[in-house]
Amino acid sequence: MESKLRIIYEDKYIIILHKPAGVATQTKNVGEPDMCSYVKNYLNGGYVGLINRLDRQVEGLVLMAKSSGMAAILNRQLIEHKMEKSYRAKVYIDSKDNTVITDSYVRLSDHISFDKIKNLSTICDKTVVDAKIGELEYKMTDVKIEENYSIADVDIHLFTGRHHQIRLQLSNIGMPILGDLKYGTPDSIAYSKVHGYRSIDLCAYKLKFIHPSNGVELTFAI
To answer: Considering 23, 58, 108, 197, which has the largest number of Cβ atoms within 10 A of its Cβ?
Structure first.
């Protein structure tokens, strides 16, 4: 597993890795390798505090703390929206939904419900029990318009960390991410299969936060 993972930054307080698509960030399945178990082995059993979790099929930067104290400080940054998490994705847009195409940032705010049994999140009314607010903003950085559909590159700033949030919210407005079989539409799934998308085209490409020990602002990108 070590050959598949890359350490982007490490000091005595934190470690940042580039997680490939297809590897779990953390799993309860016995014998299945994941990012947390890799880091624990790397640290010879030391403390590992996972700060940001990525879906198995999503590639990108994962931040972990090496002590509970550092983890608490970083988690507080998440709660107070002081940690910036940026993603890029490639989405499918049906021709009738071309009105969503924009080069300005658009804010999405939805209440999200998560079904643990089905491992499925849905947009819901705020009165639903356990519904949590999900917020992000997105901007299209490149759009290829065809006769019956469009393919767009999207830059995303994530403000909350709900289960499958980006995938769900983009699909909900008519922009399913390519390679997403769970939240995709029949047309986007068909396009993904024809064009060989074997994983979700979503990458957590940038993290910006305050170092929990020295207070220095850090930015990492892939």
So the answer is: 58
pLDDT tens for residues 82-92? 999 999 999 99
State pLDDT tens for residues 52-70: 999 889 999 999 999 999 9
For the chain, helix, strand, coil in percent to 5 are 20, 40, 40
CA distances from 15 to 11, 12, 47 (A): 7, 8, 11
> Is 220 inside a domain boundary?
no
> What is the gyration radius of the CA atoms in the chain, in angstroms?
18
Give the distance from CA 206 to its chain's centroid.
Answer: 11
Give dist(CA 96, CA 156) in Å, integer. 23
Do residues 40 and 94 share a domain? no
Strand runs labelled E in 51-184:
59-65, 84-94, 106-115, 120-124, 132-145, 149-158
140 is a domain residue: yes
Supply the range of the domain harboring residue 90: 84-202
What distance in Å separates the CA atoms of residue 19 and residue 59, rounded to the nearest whole number?
5
